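One such given next:
>
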Amino acid sequence: MHLIDDLGEEVPLRGTPERVVSLVPCLTEAVEVSLDGAIVGATDYCTHPVELDVTRVGGSKYPKVDEVLALRPDLVLANSEENRKEDVERMRADGIPVWVMAAPATVPDALGSLRRLLTQAFDLDEPRWLVEAEHAWSDTLPERTRAVVPVWRKPWVVIGRDTFGGDVLHRLGVANIYADHAERYPRPKRDEIAARFGRSEADLLVLPDEPWEFTENDGPDAFPGVPYVLVSGRYLTWYGPSLVDARRELTAALSEPRVAP
């Protein structure tokens, strides 16, 4: 069975995959929820489903490729943004089929890619959670606030153009002021971000708990007097079953901004 992944590369499957290693947390959840027991290896950051008990193969950026190969998977799942090309090429050179998902720019992009993976590679019927997620995110609210969305500190990194998280917020009525930046993940200095608030170009700081774990004591302190919200990084940036609840949970979080002292 020869399929084509999101990047146009051939995925030479030998039947329906029964042993899958996932190097992307959201793909781990999407596949395991849809096909219980299919995942035999995952990264240290694959926290969902919470009951997942499989071999851990390191991080997404630097997986332990030898351990992946030792699991003799029928398929490895990767992402063009999270995983290194050289690791993907090494696994393919060892005869392991690898499906690389493109980094989605929108919610529909993500769900469309997941539908293709699940129905083509795994020969599944369309999962119920996917239909529910599409329905939950089908509409877009009018703009009600303008935000800066950091995802890292030391140095500061923010969400820029064409990102899944940016589209999630857009659909909730939250405009990302870096959406027109040339880079997908700009690195503005702290003073530049603060100046955006000072000039009233932004009025909300959105702080997710991953990949940097922003907390009440880490993040808001850098921008005194600025309204902020803490949100789940899983609900903001993961595409998969989490999207069923993400709209409700993010809406609740965004409705209660606090002001940094």
Notes: Residues 139-259 form a domain with the Rossmann fold fold (CATH 3.40.50.1980). The chain has nine helices and 14 strands. The chain has two domains: 2-131, 139-259. The chain has a mean pLDDT of 96.
